[in-house]
Amino acid sequence: MTPTPPERTRNWTARHIPDQSGRTAVVTGANSGIGYVTARELARHGAKVILACRSEERGSRALARLASEVPSAAAEFRSLDLGDLASVRNFADRYEREGDGRLDLLVNNAGVMALPYRRTADGFETQFGVNHLGHFALTGLLLPRLLTTPGARVVTVASMLHLLANIDIADLNSEQRYRRWPAYARSKTANLLFTHELARRLADTGSDVVAAAAHPGYASTNLQSAGPRMSGRRATAALMATGNRLVGQSAEAGALPTLYAATAPGVRPDSFTGPRFLAWRGAPAPSPRAGWTRNDVASERLWAASETLTGVTYAALKG
């Protein structure tokens, strides 16, 4: 059967997920929101799923919830703090030691949004450090398993808010000037540039690993309120909560573009999947993106800077 290309697929739901039996998936930030739904639906369709979360308490609670909703699930929690490269390396080392030799799907889902200025354990601005550098390092460290697993995919969750700002290669950590929303937008642009460059490098080596991106539109999760709560902006937190109730779609709906990019036949490398209606809500469909997220020079420069900052080099993709 010829795979149905994304632009011709309408009304796709989680019921259309192909059988995932025998496949292994790692989902970062799987303790809540679209990350949890992604992990749950992959497990429901037969995948072995690793919930990679920063908080042991929340991760364990999510695992218990998943087991109650999908009693047949093969799932486990493993600790991963994307804001600490030592934790990222520990996670990858453990996966190498205890894994079954394969990794079919890596979903780079975890993220933070519009936080007050803070730094990660390694000194990076938190939004850039967690949303991009942590996932860049994780993907590079897990790449050997992805490359040896037929049909593997890397799906990175970006945002339509990337349209607000391009990266500043001379100030990746926003040290010259920090504004929380442009910094978030730059981190999401970095997600798309990373996907673009990873797809290009995989193609150059002849690998069949698919690197794709997705976004949830406006999904009602706790992501929107975390930043205002951290900075004590109660009015903004209340406004975000109201927006979630009035215009946000559910986490179940918001996870569909990620699940589509992760499992649907015919997903193309460097594709960007989001909700169909105004990239806001609805069934998965190809999503618009800024032209700067397909700039080869920018993606190469960001890649080189990311290797330097993280110390993770993608040796298997070097010529």
TrEMBL record:
Keywords: Oxidoreductase. It holds the Pfam family adh_short. The keyword Disulfide bond does not apply. One of its GO terms (molecular function) is oxidoreductase activity. SUPFAM superfamilies: NAD(P)-binding Rossmann-fold domains. Belongs to the short-chain dehydrogenases/reductases (SDR) family. This is Putative Retinol dehydrogenase 12. The lineage of its organism: Bacteria, Bacillati, Actinomycetota, Actinomycetes, Kitasatosporales.
